[in-house]
Amino acid sequence: MNKILFFDKTNSGHHYIYNKEAMKTLIEKKGIEVHYYSKFNDDLQIDQLEQLNVVNRNFRTEGSRGLPLIIELLYLRMYLKKNKINKLHLFYLDSDLIYAPVFWVFFKDIDITATMHWYPNKKIKEKLLKNLIESSVIKKIVVHGNYTKQKVENLVKRKNSVFSITYPYLHSKKAEASTLKRVQHKLENKEKPIFLAFGGLRRDKGIDILLEALKKVKLPFTLIIAGGESDFKKDEIIKIVEANKISHKVILDIQFIDEEALDAYFTIADVVVLPYRKYFSGQSGPLTEGANRSKVILGPSSGEVGYTIEKYNLGITFISENENDLQEKIEFLISNINNVKNQTFEGAENYQKEIDIKNFSYSYQKFFLNSQW
């Protein structure tokens, strides 16, 4: 029987949903045994994967970086040998690049493929990526979008090793009426249009840039900030909002957002705003969530996000990290929101076909089955 092992050092949130959908493409094929090596802290995930006939292997160490991860990778190598598996897929090459020497030394006899969500923003990682592909340690690589695909192809000679699979719409759960009503209640007597900044408060996502741009906006609007703490804490966001005198225009829900609340927020929003910094080089989950609901997308003109917005006419773009340009684009949207919605509707419909989970699954199936077994 043919066997393949999938590896991800993180198994939470969208990682698990994405990985499960990608693995399902092979699970449904007879004669292929699927193993999944990751961190498991959720019994429901384990049950779901066992029902799909995935063989699960939990981490043996506590760490997810540094020496503990190197040790875990050596355990992974032993697991491959013990179970006579010669195919390995790395679900998150972005965070594994720094451990490239481990793969060069200990995984030479393994056929390795990988998914890379972000193009490296550091020269050392770019060099490691190039060497992994040029040396055929990584046989094939998946990226999300033609912009990133072109960048990798420009980096390496083995251009036929790079494949683009559109990042999918992953959250299909609809909000219950009570959840939708709760979110709507927060917006009572609030001014429109509604801007939504969704996701963990990492620095690269630029929530501070957005709040600085908004303090200069005199037109009516409401901003919802929904997502968990990260580089920015709730107290820091409150201080910036208060200092900029926009407290009456901002609704904060700084916590983990479940799927029902996610759907409610995206359903209610007029504009999904992505104030990302220049070094954000991946595709955006909130972009796909917004586009799937035909929402106007406001994002940076750079990177995969800017390429996607402009190619599919999903909204408008601004110069990344430029508060004045972001302010001007926000004011333009406030003044022209209905016209922009009408202009972007067709583009959103076309993009929805591409981000459909069935296309994602088919593309991954094609990627794996075109590999030699």
Automatic annotation (TrEMBL):
Domain annotation Glycosyl transferase family: ranges: 186-337
Sample GO molecular function, one term: glycosyltransferase activity
InterPro entries: Glyco_trans_1
Alphabetical keyword list: Transferase
Pfam families with a match to the protein in the record: Glycos_transf_1 (PF00534)
A Gene Ontology BP annotation from the UniProt entry: lipopolysaccharide biosynthetic process
Protein name (record): Glycosyltransferase involved in cell wall bisynthesis
Species this chain originates from: Domibacillus enclensis
